[in-house]
Amino acid sequence: MVDRKDLEEVLKIAMRKGGDFADIFIERRKTTSIGLEADKIERVNSGLEAGAGLRVISGDHTAYAYTNDLSREGLEQLAKVVSKAARGQARDLTIDFRQPKPNWDIEIEKMPDKVDIEDKVELVKTANEAARAVDTRVKQVTVGYGDVYQRVTIANTEGVFVEDERVRTRLAINAVAAQGDIIQTGYEAAGGYRGFELFREISAEDLASSAAKRAVLMLQAKPAPAGKMPVVMAGEAGGTMIHEACGHGLEADLVQKKLSVYANRKGEKVASEQVTVVDDASLPGKYGSLRYDDEGTPGQRTVLIENGILKEYMYDKLTARKEKRDSTGNGRRESYQDRPIPRMTNTFIAPGKMDPEDIIRETKKGLLVKKMGGGQVNTTNGDFVFDVAEGYLIEEGEITVPVRGATLTGNGPRVLQIVDMVGKDLGFAIGTCGKDGQGVPVSDAQPTIRIPELIVGGILDD
């Protein structure tokens, strides 16, 4: 990539007019994406991108700029631009670079960029055929494949020097089924910090069939009942609720700006004693995993809530500096064009001890959520509204008929306070998390949990 000595000189130039901290992020990225619609491959895109972003922090102020010119001259010019925004007195820096040891490692068995594009196209076609073979009522199928190979170099004035390679691969299928005036959808996605060997472990056909079967199943579903009732969220539903209704509120920038309901509440009971919430970038192979975050901090496991007690927030270097503490390895950015901000990685409710079947049996009447849809959350107060993509009635402790059109409305902190059963399973889902105009890969998860009272189907007056 770029010589260490050159990076040292660039950082010195960035700090020559003052500043407390400077870092540089250099990226080379190779991507492939394939899209299929209406039985046709609509796009096959591949691209190469390279650039560097340079940041100087002076007190509470941050200056950030980026360039596509990775020559020493180009980086020095970038440093001169950023240095103009620095404040304070110039310092004579001596930087002793070192690379911190990551908390996990993985060997990619089959690099996606070494796989023929024809093989990737065939994978997409196979998924399409599998979805359409489920039922004649499946009217539309879209399949999206993507992979990314990223090489980064990160260096800062504290002496951190990191060179890292990152590989992610994913496949997503959306199926639409129709019968009369009723139209329903089913969605499935799989991915990880993995190479093309992902598809030896995850069958594209099974993934596509699952999406199509969900769409067809929902055609026969009854309209969801409305009212307050117990809700059991299956592990396979993924952790959308914990990610949206809780996770963002535990990111340190929102906390420090008082835009989180969890601000200034460390040490307080914020959830049921059965609830432990973890963000863990060190899980090998997961979609949100990182050997190093985008500031060169090793990805790590952070217990955010332990047995109901708020223990920690997720920090990047900037928010950590404000509290004179270490980063938790949650500094992430979409690309070299973006400054790092605190972001989740793999966020989940830790498994409990109950058998998921026992949770169903002990629920006389309620709603079982097997798959979550989209939703909205207000991080300031924790209020949320989520769609249910696949749900069933629970009657007399048994799963009975499927229901469609259900929504879940509530308040994240209150929901966590009243969770009364936590299963021993754990189901992951993947996605791209958006914040401040940046999207980064994440995964979230939860075991089967029971919420004794939640508004289903809409907002009702007490």
Features:
2 domains, disordered C terminus, alpha+beta, 10 helices, 462 residues, 6-stranded mixed beta sheet, PmbA/TldD fold, 6-stranded antiparallel beta sheet
What's the short story on this structure?
This protein has 10 helices and 22 strands. It has helices at 4-14, 72-83, 117-132, 198-201, 204-219, 240-247, 252-256, 317-322, 356-361, 412-418, and strands at 21-37, 40-58, 61-67, 138-156, 161-179, 182-192, 222-223, 227-233, 277-280, 301-306, 309-310, 331-332, 341-342, 346-349, 365-377, 383-395, 398-404, 407-411, 421-422, 427-435, 438-446, 449-456. The longest helix is centred in the first third of the chain and has 16 residues, at 117-132.
Explained architecture:
- The protein is 20% helix and 40% strand.
- The chain is built from ten helices and 22 strands.
- The strands form four sheets. It has a six-stranded antiparallel beta sheet.
- α1 runs parallel beside α2 and α3 runs parallel beside α5.
- 47% of the residues are buried.
- The C terminus is likely disordered.
Give the CA-based shape.
globular
Q: Mean pLDDT, as a whole number? A: 94
**Main sheet, how many strands, which sense, barrel?**
6 strands, antiparallel
How far is it from the N-terminal to the C-terminal residue, by CA?
62 Å
* Uncertain regions spanning at least 5 consecutive residues: 458-462
What class do helices, strands and sheet pairing give? alpha+beta
What strand line-up does the widest sheet have? 3-2-1-4-5-6
- How many separate helices? 10
Radius of gyration: 24 Å
Strand content: 35-45%
Helicity level? 10-25%
